[in-house]
Amino acid sequence: MSGKTERGCQRRLRLRFLSVGQGSARRKGGAKRWPLAADSQSRPGRRSMRLLLPASVRLESWLRKVLGLIMSKCSLTPWLFIWLMLLYQSGCYFLDSVIAASSFRHVHHYINKSNLDQGYCERKRKLSNFSGWRLSTEKLTATLPIDRIEENYVREVQGSIFSVAYPTPFKSRVLLVAFSKFGSWAGQLGDGRAHLIGVYTNRFGDTWELQLKGSGRTPYSRNGDGRAVLRSSVREFLGSEAMHYLGIPTSRAASLVLSDDDVWRDRFYNGDIKKERGAIVLRVAKSWFRIGSLEILTRSGELDLLRVLLDLVIDEHFPSISMNDSNKYLAFFSRVVSETADLIALWMSVGFAHGVCNTDNFSLLSITIDYGPFGFMDSYDPGFVPNISDDERRYNIGNQANVGMFNLNKLLQALNPLLDPRQKQLASQILEGYPDQYYKRFTELFKAKLGLLGSGSDDGYLIAFLLKLMEDVKADFTMTFRQLGEMSLDHLKDVSIPQEFWAIHDIAKHELFSSWVAMYLLRLQRNADDSESDRKRRMASVNPRYVLRNWMAESAIQKAERNDFSEVRLLLQVLQHPFQVQTVAETAGYAQRPPAWAKEIKVSCSS
């Protein structure tokens, strides 16, 4: 957790940088090995305040007074503290603006000067070394064992949950951009480039684990260099925030810091190794433990440690489960099964394909983690695979629900040594109920996307019929549902489609579209006391107009490679309000037909 802190700060800040080990079920045959990434379901607590700093002004004395006032008068959010720390450590004199309003907002910045003189850092030592932060690792380190070996070299770690590893500093200047494996056992994985820096408790009593990704090697790095590159870091930063504002349980991104240090990557695993820019993402989650965290303990026979870790997870994150309940592990498994079914149904409702659904990438809290080669569908295709490394197409979007059940079965196998025969039988029955739970939630979500109220015996058929038409004509997933909610029923009834509804124009070419429309209009008539305006309002609230399409992320990445972060900031702004029509987004073409070159974009596990 935090590294070389001053001795006088130890009482308040007992931190060491920790990396977490876990196992993973991954694919067979020539599987590429890559470092882990890692989750948060609801937003952290925050204080309503607004602080604007003028741009391009040397602010040393003025900032000192303001920061002193803030720290003495305000109950700050972790986000503002994170930004202040990074600001001083990175050496930023020049700022654009800082906004911490009543709803969680990101701060958009860049650094023009990155190396503070040492004297200035010494004067601000309380900020630069975390001593002003109320971070703690006491609950984790007092309960869970830490590897006795503190040397940072790659090894098999047993009998421990955490290993001590200090981040590796970048050699070049750094740039603060924004604030804000496939089915078979792969053995020990772990945080090969992630460092847990502490647990923050906000004013509501919620705890958030802060983690750096791309911050250097750890004992779990295998052959990796412990670094992350700009393109994958921008994708994780934007992707996790986009999912949060879509209402999907997810990890959050707090900051993105870039460097001029060289990082070498074989992006497509074809032998073409190229130099890329390094980056570090600071991310937060309620917990970073995954199914693989339990799986590896069972496989290595460390059952006492398995029980200790599981008890901690239940006690910290499942308060409705009594620790004195003899069926607590069964209750835990039931919750994870139900919430995983819900999560994957939510993914499907926005056309999201995770890309790497290994057990080490499935959170015990059922939140979306590890934003690697993910993708939002453009044209609807149940076989959509965003990850070109997935040559067996195991994790195609239409198979995600099945993979979820596979991973839950691995979780059950990990829990089995702690269950008695009766509990094992009940747990198997719970797992068998997963498909029904998933289908029920999937149907609920897609009924809402179509503006349907109540229930009808043919609702499932109506949804499946539409998806088949979309598949046949390769209709745009996001905009087909969005524009169905924006069109009047009169236009739909006459199949008189205004030109601006380009996605409906595409699907209307199908010879069976008029038959589907007739069924749909008949079903809408059963919406008791429903009005046209109410239907449009409901559908607009669940069908986003903007998602992080791969071409949008790629455009921002290409500009960022040239130190132009304008589109990263623009996307962050737009994706915070995905359901609202925004002039800047319309001007940028984010709701228009994807450009032809979008089909050529490839993403892989290389990051």
Write the layout of secondary structure elements.
Elements (H helix, E strand, L loop, with lengths): L17 E3 L2 E5 L21 E3 L8 H14 L4 H13 L7 E3 L17 H6 L1 H4 L6 E2 L1 H6 L18 E3 L9 E5 L4 E6 L5 E8 L5 E7 L14 E2 H16 L6 E15 L6 E13 L5 H9 L3 H15 L10 H22 L2 E2 L21 E2 L23 H16 L5 H12 L1 H16 L9 H15 L3 H10 L2 H5 L8 H7 L4 H12 L7 H11 L7 H11 L5 H10 L7 H6 L19
Antiparallel strand pairs: 1-6, 2-8, 3-4, 5-9, 7-12, 9-10, 10-13, 11-13, 12-13, 14-15
Helix pairs in contact: 6-19, 6-20, 7-10, 9-10, 9-11, 9-12, 13-17, 14-16, 14-18, 19-20
What does this entry show, briefly?
By secondary structure, this protein is of the alpha+beta class.
Structural features, described:
Its cofactor is Mg(2+). By secondary structure, the protein is of the alpha+beta class. It has 4 domains: 7-285, no CATH class; 293-442, no CATH class; 455-526, no CATH class; 550-600, no CATH class. Helix content is 39%, strand content 13%. It has helices at residues 60-73, 78-90, 118-123, 125-128, 138-143, 230-245, 291-299, 303-317, 328-349, 400-415, 421-432, 434-449, 459-473, 477-486, 489-493, 502-508, 513-524, 532-542, 550-560, 566-575, 583-588; strands at residues 18-20, 23-27, 49-51, 98-100, 135-136, 162-164, 174-178, 183-188, 194-201, 207-213, 228-229, 252-266, 273-285, 352-353, 375-376. The strands form 5 sheets. Strands 5, 7, 9, 10, 11, 12 and 13 form a 7-stranded antiparallel sheet that branches. Helix 9 runs antiparallel to helix 10 and helix 19 runs antiparallel to helix 20 (566-575). It is globular and about 70 Å long. It starts with 17 loop residues before the first strand and ends in a 19-residue tail after the last helix. The model is unreliable at 1-20, 26-64, 73-79, 85-131 and 170-191 (pLDDT under 50).
